[in-house]
C-alpha cells in the first residue's frame, strides 16, 4: 500500500478497507479515485475471503466534500468533456455501490457532501456521528443534485428532501437518519472500537449485528420540529409558490429558508425541483442516475456552473451573477432542455421507456 495513493486499500480480518486519501482537499473525488474504487469493489465482490467493505476518509475533517469542482470549471472553460467522462464513471460507481452484494459500511463522519454522499449513502450500512454534516449543496454553485442525490432526497419523508435539495442545507446525524440518508449513529469516540470489532467478523450477518451493537440513539435533530411548515410550503408546484409560502408562513425558520433559496441559481432551483419530483416517479436508482446524467450534461454546457464555482471556490467573493438572474426569467423550455435525451451519449443504466 502506497500511502500517497488517492485511495488506500488494505484488509483487516475479512473486511476490505477503502480509505479516500486526499485529506488536504477534504478527500474530494477525482476520476482516478472513482476508477480505483470501482476496481476495488469488483475485486472485493468476487473475493470469497472478503465479507464486507468499509469506506472511510483520511484526516480529521470528513469523509468526502464532493467532487473536484474547480477541475470541472476548468474543463468547462476549456470546452472539454473530461467532466462528462468523470460523471459517467462516478454515477456507474454509485449504482455499483447500491448493488454491492456484501455489506458496504460507510463511516459518514465529519463533512459528507455531494459526491461524498454518492459513495456513502447508497451503501447498505451507513453510519453517522455527532460530527457528521451531510448536504447536497449544488444549487449554490449553479448545478443540480446528482450522484443519486435526487433519488435519495425524493425518497425522504414528506417534503424534507425538497427542502434540503433547494436550500443545500447541511444536516447532522439525527436529521440524516430521519431523511433516510443514514442507518445508524455511533459516537465518534466509538468508531475505533467498531472498526476493531468488524475485523473479527467472519460473516456478513456478523458485520450487520456488530454495527447494531455499537449503535446508540442519536442526539436530537432540528427537522422533525419543522415538518409542518416544510411539508406545507414545499408541496407547492413551483419554486415561486414555495417561496411565497415560506415567506408568508410566519415561522422565522421558514423565512430563513426562503432567504437561503433566493441566493441560489434560479435555473438550478427550477431544474432541481423538477428533478426531485421526477425522481419520485421514476422509482429506481438506475433510472434516476440516467436522468441526472442528462441534467448534469446540460448544466455543464450552461453559464451558471462556471460562475457559481468562481464565486464560491475560485474568487470566493460569494457574489455569483446568475444567468438568468431571476426565477421569472427561467422558462419551462429552459428547464425541459435539462431532461432531453442524449442519444448515443446516454448513461444507459436503465432501459428507456417505450413510447406509443
UniProtKB/TrEMBL annotation:
Keywords tagged on the record: Hydrolase
PANTHER family listed in its UniProt record: 3-HYDROXYISOBUTYRYL-COA HYDROLASE, MITOCHONDRIAL (PTHR43176:SF3), 3-HYDROXYISOBUTYRYL-COA HYDROLASE-RELATED (PTHR43176)
SUPFAM superfamilies from the UniProt entry: ClpP/crotonase
NCBIfam families (alphabetical): PRK05617.1
Catalysed reactions listed for this entry: 3-hydroxy-2-methylpropanoyl-CoA + H2O = 3-hydroxy-2-methylpropanoate + CoA + H(+)
EC number, as in UniProt: 3.1.2.4
UniProt lineage: Bacteria, Bacillati, Actinomycetota, Actinomycetes, Kitasatosporales
Span of domain Enoyl-CoA hydratase/isomerase: 15-339
Designated name of the protein: 3-hydroxyisobutyryl-CoA hydrolase
Amino acid at each position: 500500500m502506497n500511502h500517497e495513493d488517492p485511495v488506500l486499500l488494505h484488509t483487516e480480518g475479512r473486511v476490505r478497507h477503502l480509505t479516500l486519501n486526499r485529506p488536504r482537499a477534504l478527500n474530494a473525488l477525482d476520476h482516478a479515485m472513482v476508477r480505483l474504487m470501482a476496481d476495488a469493489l469488483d475485486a472485493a465482490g468476487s473475493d470469497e475471503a472478503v465479507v464486507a467493505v468499509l469506506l472511510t476518509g483520511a484526516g480529521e475533517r470528513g469523509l468526502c466534500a464532493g467532487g473536484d469542482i474547480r477541475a470541472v470549471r476548468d474543463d468547462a472553460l476549456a470546452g472539454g468533456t473530461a467532466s462528462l467522462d468523470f460523471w459517467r464513471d462516478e454515477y456507474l460507481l454509485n449504482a455499483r455501490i447500491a448493488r454491492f452484494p456484501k455489506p458496504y459500511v460507510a463511516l459518514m463522519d465529519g463533512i459528507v457532501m455531494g459526491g461524498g454522499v454518492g459513495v456513502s449513502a447508497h451503501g447498505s450500512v451507513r453510519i453517522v456521528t455527532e460530527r457528521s454534516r451531510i448536504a447536497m449543496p449544488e444549487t449554490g454553485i449553479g448545478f443540480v443534485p446528482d450522484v443519486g442525490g435526487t433519488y435519495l432526497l425524493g425518497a425522504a419523508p414528506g417534503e424534507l428532501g425538497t427542502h434540503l435539495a433547494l436550500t443545500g442545507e447541511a444536516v447532522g446525524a439525527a436529521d440524516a437518519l430521519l431523511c433516510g440518508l443514514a442507518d445508524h449513529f455511533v459516537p465518534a469516540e466509538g468508531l475505533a472500537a467498531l472498526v476493531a470489532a468488524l475485523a473479527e467478523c467472519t460473516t456478513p450477518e456478523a458485520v450487520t449485528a456488530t454495527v447494531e451493537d455499537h449503535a446508540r440513539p442519536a442526539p436530537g435533530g432540528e427537522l422533525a420540529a419543522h415538518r409542518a411548515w416544510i411539508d406545507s410550503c414545499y408541496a407547492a408546484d413551483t419554486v415561486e409558490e414555495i417561496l411565497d409560502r415560506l415567506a408568508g408562513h410566519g415561522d422565522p425558520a421558514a423565512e430563513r429558508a426562503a432567504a437561503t433559496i433566493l441566493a441560489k441559481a434560479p435555473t438550478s432551483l427550477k431544474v432541481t425541483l423538477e428533478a426531485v419530483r421526477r425522481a419520485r416517479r421514476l422509482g429506481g436508482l438506475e433510472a434516476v442516475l440516467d436522468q441526472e446524467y442528462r441534467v448534469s450534461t446540460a448544466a455543464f454546457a450552461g453559464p451558471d456552473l462556471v460562475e457559481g464555482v468562481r464565486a464560491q471556490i475560485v474568487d470566493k467573493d460569494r457574489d455569483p451573477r446568475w444567468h438568468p438572474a431571476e426565477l421569472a426569467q427561467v422558462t419551462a423550455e429552459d428547464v425541459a432542455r435539462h431532461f432531453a435525451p442524449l442519444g448515443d451519449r446516454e448513461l444507459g443504466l436503465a432501459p428507456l421507456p417505450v413510447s406509443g
